[in-house]
Write a structure and sequence with these properties.
By secondary structure, the protein is α/β, with parallel strands linked by helices. It is built from 15 helices and seven strands. Helix 11 packs across helix 15. Bound molecules: 5,6-dihydroxy-NADP (NZQ) and zinc ion.
Length: about 375
């Protein structure tokens, strides 16, 4: 973090410093960042208050500030929500329409201000990719955009900055990292030992180090392994040569976050077991491999289908019992009353699924399974 001033000075002279709802003020990180900027002559303009599941209002506010104050770079200090808001602001600074246009697929950014990141939570991979996901509370929508200009110019990943992440957010982050691997691991391309090995090593690492970070929040090695996994799980590497990933579960999850305000990782723990149960017969060999190589299920004497299902169960048990993250919508008091609306919204912009292409009936069935009891 001590280098943030030097890195920022290489990108601009006046930085919009974007932060969340208070954690970086409380733990002293913002002071460290501000004095590092100051010592390299980078002027700081502050925008705080970005909420988890970041909202378009902060993006509009940040873009206006950039124009009024002549900001020439955006520095995110926080978790994925802060990083995503900073990216959207960087793209909107020179766009005179409504920034929601980018997320509603009505416009594409022509360019973006340079973006820097000081990451405080291992989860989204936003620190090393060109994605931003923003919520519009007026329409109850949460939508992603991708643009190469949103790729951060630099990201500072210091595991010690994640020591203060509380257990629930640590666990949601772990579910998110694993989910990014799942989205890319489940494909139907043959002969991909290198991609499979990378994905399996990330899953194995995360599954084994997360309990250590939960038990001892300042365990440096545990936090470091999670942080590195966060970036490698969603920087494009895992899906190289295999078609880019499935991503249907992420689109189904965004509906839960948009409509019910639950954390992204919490929603994924609900959606993934249901999605897997719907799709595993499409390529049962892949799910057998998942059971053995990611979850250590002993295949001896098991029929193909039983082995595949045991892998899904092992993942579900891990979410529920090791990470303490619920796996049904009912656990969050969510009923089925908005399932049809969520299905239509999830399918608004593109077809869902590449491992298995999902029909509207499939989507509704997945939500119904995710409801639980
Ligand atoms: O608001 P602050 O004060 O920053 O507190 C946050 C927030 O309450 C807190 N926190 C973060 N770092 C901390 C800390 N508390 C103590 N110590 C620290 N070091 O944790 C809470 C959650 O933070 P948030 O940024 O919302 O979490 P996360 O990193 O999981 O980001 C989630 C958002 O990213 C999107 C999600 O949809 C969600 O909106 N995603 C972004 C992706 C991308 N850009 O590539 C991909 C993902 O699939 C995902 O969709
Ligand atoms: Zn995710």
């Amino acid at each position: 973090v001590a280098n943030v001033g030097v890195e920022a000075a290489a990108a601009g002279k006046r930085a919009l410093v974007v932060t969340g709802t208070g954690s970086v003020k409380k733990n002293g990180l913002l002071d460290v960042v501000m004095s590092a900027l100051d010592s390299e002559g980078v002027e700081a303009v502050e925008l705080s208050g970005v909420v988890p599941n970041p909202e378009i209002g902060s993006v509009r506010e940040g873009a206006a500030l950039c124009r009024e104050r002549g900001v020439d770079m955006v520095l995110a200090v926080g978790g994925g929500s802060v990083v995503d808001a900073a990216k959207a602001i960087a793209a909107a600074a020179d766009y005179y329409g409504d920034p929601w246009d980018f997320f509603d697929k009505k416009a594409k950014p022509a360019k973006a201000l340079p973006i820097g990141v000081v990451l405080t939570l291992s989860a989204t991979g936003s620190e090393m990719n060109g994605n931003s996901v923003i919520t519009n509370p007026e329409t109850s929508e949460k939508r992603p955009m991708y643009h190469p200009a949103l790729y951060p110019r630099f990201s500072i990943l210091d595991p010690e900055l994640t020591f203060t992440v509380p257990p629930d957010q640590t666990a949601y982050g772990v579910v998110d990292i694993l989910s990014h691997v799942f989205e890319q691991y489940f494909h139907n391309v043959q002969d991909t030992p290198l991609q499979d090995g990378l994905a399996e090593t990330i899953m194995w690492t995360v599954v084994n180090y997360a309990p250590l970070a939960l038990k001892k929040p300042d365990d440096y090695n545990a936090r470091a392994n999670l942080m590195w996994a966060s970036s490698l799980a969603l920087n494009g590497l895992l899906a190289a040569g295999t078609g880019g990933g499935d991503w249907a579960s992420h689109m189904l999850e965004h509906e839960l976050s948009a409509k019910y305000g639950i954390a992204h990782g919490a929603g994924l723990a609900v959606i993934f077991p249901a999605w897997m149960r719907r799709v595993y017969k499409t390529n049962i060999v892949r799910f057998m491999q998942f059971a053995v190589n990611a979850w250590g299920v002993d295949p001896t004497g098991l029929k193909e289908e039983d082995l595949a299902v045991k892998g899904i169960e092992a993942m579900e048990n891990y979410f529920r019992n090791t990470l303490n993250v619920p796996v049904t919508m009912a656990d969050y008091g969510i009923d089925g009353s908005r399932i049809e609306e969520m299905a239509d919204s999830a399918m608004k912009h593109k077809k869902l699924g590449s491992f298995m292409s999902l029909s509207r009936d499939d989507v509704i069935a997945i939500y119904e399974t995710a409801l639980g009891s």
